[in-house]
Amino acid sequence: MSDHTIPGVGADGRITLAHGGGGTAMRALIDGVFLRAFSDNPAAPQEDQARFAMADLAALGDRLAFTTDSFVVDPLEFPGGDIGTLAVCGTVNDLAVGGARPVALSAAFILAEGLDLAVVRRIAASMAACARAAGVRIVTGDTKVVPRGACDGLFVTTTGIGVIRPGCAISIASGRPGDVVIVNGTLGDHGAAILCARGDLALDVTLGSDCAPLNGLTEALLDAVPDVRCMRDATRGGLAGVLTELAEASLVTVRIDEAALPVRPEVAGVCEILGLDPLYLANEGKLAAVVPAAAADVALAAMRAHPLGRDAAVIGRLETAASGRSAVHLANRFGGQRVVSMPSGEQLPRIC
Amino acid sequence: MRFVDEFRDPELADRLFSEIARVAERIGRTRTRPVTVMEVCGGHTHTIFRYALETRMPENVEFAHGPGCPVCVLPMGRIDDAIAIARRPEVIFTTFGDAMRVPGAQGTLLQARAAGADVRMVYSPLDALALARANPERQVVFFALGFETTAPSTALTVLRAAAEGIGNFSIMCQHITIIPTLRALLSQDDFRVDGFIGPGHVSMVIGTRPYDFIASEFHRPLVVAGFEPLDILQSLLMVLRQVDACTARIENQYARVVYADGNPAAMAAIDRVYETRPACEWRGLGTIAGSGLSLRPAWRAFDAEQRFAVTPHHVADPGACRCGDVLTGRIRPTQCPAFGTSCTPDCPSGALMVSSEGACAAYYQYQGQKGAA
User: Fold this and answer.
1) Are A218 and A99 in contact (CB under 8 A)?
2) CA torsion angle for B189, B190, B195, B201 (degrees, to 10)?
3) What are phi and psi of A249, to 5 degrees?
4) What CA–CA distances, in Å, run from A223 to A165, A220, A226?
5) Is the CB of residue B69 less than 8 Å from the CB of residue A275?
6) Which end of chain A is more exposed for a tag (fewer CB within 10 A), N or C?
């Protein structure tokens, strides 16, 4: 369907307030863009809710997992993904790191008046492709349009449900002294890619976001090591955010080895120039997994056998917290030690 | 990473640590007081903590963290002046990122932005000039911060704005110079620093000769240093060797970047655009004569404070914070009563907690709240 066949879209192909008005323009936008992209059967009657057979869910496990996340990003499209892939991956990954098999997602869009409809189409298409790759369906949604300036192009909120496999007891509070910490690949790719994509740095680097659904990887890991203690995807706040939470919740000291941290040279370069730390940069396809030391080799092999875990590495281990003080310690290449603290606010580039 | 990893080589670092320990031990045979070495520049402070260099120092060698972080020495009143300009509806106020969190009496620039001011982060004054070109109906103001490192780029931006006739661009000039402040520190009776690690970036512009008085008048060694851990360790060793030999010379460890005469083109740009302020206020240090730059009369049309008729605010430093004592090496950050209690990176009251180059933020971030690793 070409854009001029959607009522309310002018010759310039832009979203207008009519597309959120509940009338024919809105119906046409939903049918012509979102349903076309997301639905297996766009001609089926549209109810106000998605419905699931309890028996189908029960066949997958014994508990429901339920999560939601809102996405705002500038720019909307960037090397390696767009706001839509972020939304699908973010919600799928939040389910997956709890040991859940993601089943279905909702997607609620807030569009700004004046947004190019072609952008909406591209984002819907990439969400659909990403959901297919993750093996989940986008089954319900919503669209609102706000006046120009009231939102930055497009915001999207995705909610997901999944089913947790029986016997799986993953928790951020389950880390034990002696356990090892594994990450599935290079750190900070997404954060660095977004900084470069904003274009105000004029850095000539080819760097894509690592945005990817991790449920295939977590399934492989859980199949190999059923007693994984915890998993977290290292999004905002980076690996530092995840590890400081882990230390606090599990009442342990997390000791990581700087030399073991996988960081792309391009990301290290961007961080050098801007005075940032890859430990604090966002990732959208990376997780930290804590496993018992005895299972470390099996876990590492299982992750490395998956395309999203090829660069997996053991980066540290958990220790008894000295005098009850949980913390993250980083051993650097110089034999020195420093504390990795919880991220505070946004990382701001340094003046010199 | 090429040209970086070479300066972070652990084996070379081990050799430097051993040599530092050897020289320190020899110094310790004839002297009971520890050797205190001040790194002047905030970038050096950052390296020292990031690489935990201080955790491998001999017992009788201490770092004092100097006043060379331009964000840290921003007085509260100047932030209030900046906010007064930023609040004007016609103004787009542009600044380097780390100045946005510095608290004045009226809050921070980040808070001013939340309240409706158009405050934007830029990476260079030329970005601000580009904004002025793109928004001819707005007034674009650049918060010109920093030492001689950043002063030339601001100067060249003003010259370009003048050449292009861009009338809606101006700067709020808070450029400062390090030499008068080092002299002021050295002139204090209780200043117990034995030698300096000199600022690399500033020296790239001003050269090494302006430091000569530190050796000739005050008999302290200074070694201009680069910013990688091996640079700092080698420079520290050079300072310690001078202390051991009871000499006081100006040396240059950062010869791959810094020349004795500095960068004459950059100095010429500074000289063309700025004149010395009779007095300039530094957070924690008070007013120091001749330590600030303002636009020369020929360029006053680009002075935001004149354009918007700002009445300068003067605000006393927060009472509990002892930023000045930390900046002069009298106390360690953890000895300040506000450290980690009323002053944290999330809610800084002293500016040394704001910038990651500030000694207090570095202590907090890399050593933990209680200051113990």
Assistant:
1) yes
2) -80
3) -70, -35
4) 10, 5, 6
5) no
6) N
| Distance in angstroms (rounded) separating the CA atoms of residues B78 and A93 | 46
Between chains, do A272 and B10 touch, taking CB under 8 Å as contact?
Answer: no
CA dist B184 and B289 (Å) reads 9
CA A183/CA A187 separation, integer angstroms: 9
CA distance B3 to B7: 7
- B-chain residues near A351 (CB < 8 A): 70-71, 96-99, 145-146, 150, 355
Contact call for B123 and A332, based on CB within 8 A = no
* Interval A117-153: pLDDT, tens: 999 999 999 999 999 999 999 999 999 999 998 998 9
Strands (E), B163-210: 169-175, 195-198
Topology (CATH) of B1-335+349-373: Rossmann fold (3.40.50)
In B, minimum Cα distance to A270 occurs at B1
Tokens of residue B49, six digits: 């903590």
B328 within 8 A of B188, measured Cβ to Cβ: yes
Predicted confidence (pLDDT) at residue B304 exceeds the cutoff of 80: yes
pLDDT in the model for residue A352: 46
Note the pTM of the prediction, 2 decimals. 0.85
Between CA A12 and CA A4 the distance in angstroms is 9
CA proximity to A78, closest of A182, A219, A230, A205: A205
Quick check: B373 and A335 CB within 8 A? Answer: no
Which of B20, B64, B26 lies closest to B246 in space, CA to CA? B26
**H-helix or E-strand containing B352?**
none
- Contact criterion met (CB below 8 Å) for B313 and B74: no
Residues A351, B96: C-beta atoms closer than 8 Å: yes
Distance between CA atoms of B179 and A253, rounded to whole angstroms? 44
Q: What is the DSSP string of B47-99?
A: HHHHTTGGGGS-TTEEEEEEEE-TTTT--HHHHHHHHHHHTSTTEEEEE-GGG
* Beta-bridge mates of residue A306: none
Question: CB A349 to CB B123 under 8 A?
Answer: yes
Distance from CA of B220 to the nearest CA of A (A): 26
Q: What is the CA radius of gyration of chain A?
A: 22
| Cα A170 to Cα A67, A226, A228, A242, B54, distances in angstroms | 15, 10, 7, 14, 39
Q: What's the pLDDT tens digit per position in B166-218?
A: 999 999 999 999 999 999 999 998 888 999 999 999 999 999 999 999 999 99
Contact B145 A269 (CB under 8 A): no
Structural domains in chain A, sorted by start: 3-164 (3.30.1330.10), 180-340 (3.90.650.10)
**Residues 6+ positions from A36 with CB-CB distance below 8 Å:** A1, A42, A124
User: What's the distance, CA B113 to chain centroid?
Assistant: 25
Length of chain B measured in residues: 373
Indicate the length of chain A as a whole number.
Answer: 352
In total, the C-beta contacts within 8 angstroms joining chain A to chain B are 96
Report yes or no: A323 at the B interface, CB cutoff 8 Å: no
Beta-sheet pairing, A63-71 with A137-146: unpaired
Strands A180-183, A287-291: pairing kind: antiparallel
